[in-house]
Design goal:
This protein is an alpha/beta fold and about 160 residues long. About 45% of the residues lie in helices and about 15% in strands. It is globular. One of its GO terms (biological process) is rRNA processing.
Amino acid sequence: MELEIDIEEWPAGDWEALADRVAEAAQQVAPELANPRLVTSLLFTSDAHVHELNREWRQRDKPTNVLSFPMLERGDLVHLDPDEGPPEMLGDIALAHETCAREAEAKGVALEHHAAHLILHGLLHLAGHDHEISDEDAEKMEALEVNALALMGIANPYSETSS
């Protein structure tokens, strides 16, 4: 999977390298993401921009930490031939700096670790995983997140002792 990364209104940091590490970990726990034909757009932006996207595309008039906009159905993704055909847009992810920073501080974790979790969360949504369908689906998605973050040396974000 190729990431197209745009960074606006985020503090200095190696956000591209972090996103690449997250994508590598995601591909290990969700092999459907390892397809070399996939392209994902990742935008590091402001709360104001994410608020605008959330209002326009999800009819929710508030900022949020991460938005994901899938462009492939899960069935199409898992059956996508990795060797034949043009690049396929998996989808777009937008990360809101102020909300991410506030949440990281409240959890007592590094902004980089929280951002990694949210990028991963967005990638799994693009792959068709959804925590809002059922408790079983939520547990499955959470386990994928915990496993991928562990591969990166990042503590379980759902553990009360992770901070």
